[in-house]
Amino acid sequence: MKLMIYCKKCKGRTFVDRQYSSAQHMETYCMVCGMRKFFHPPAESEEGRWLLAKELSRAKSTIAKL
Question: What's the confidence (pLDDT) of residue 25?
Answer without folding.
Answer: 83
